[in-house]
């Protein structure tokens, strides 16, 4: 999973939004608990913003150069599917630079 260390090269910011109590946000909460430390260790100066808000649907947003943003709704996704969605966002950032 070498792409994990590419966050700071391909993105400007990563935002993960979810509800603290909603069952639809359970996999997003689990994803953050299992992966945040590793992602932050590999990208220590990269802003990874965790936003908890009551009643919000789980989402992940990537901000690229020139203010371009892409988001993915995480409702109904499993933790491995969320990881794949993040990988796709990181790879999309590489293609935007080309």
Description:
It comes from Hibiscus sabdariffa. The protein has 98 residues and is an alpha+beta fold. Helix 2 packs across helix 3. The radius of gyration is 13 Å and the shape is globular.
H/E topology pattern: HEHEEEH
Beta-strand residue percentage: 15-25%
The largest sheet is: 4 strands, mixed
Average pLDDT, all residues: 93
Please give the radius of gyration in angstroms: 13 Å
User: Can you count the beta strands?
Assistant: 4
> What's the overall geometry?
globular
Summarize this structure as a short list of keywords or feature phrases:
98 residues, alpha+beta, 4-stranded mixed sheet, 3 helices, 4 strands, 41% helix, globular
Outline:
It contains 3 helices and 4 strands. The chain has helices at 7-10, 26-42, 79-97, and strands at 13-18, 48-52, 59-63, 69-73. The chain has a 4-stranded mixed sheet, covered by helices on one side.
Strand-helix topology:
Layout: H1 7-10, E1 13-18, H2 26-42, E2 48-52, E3 59-63, E4 69-73, H3 79-97
Parallel strand pairs: 1-2
Antiparallel strand pairs: 1-3, 3-4
Helix pairs in contact: 2-3
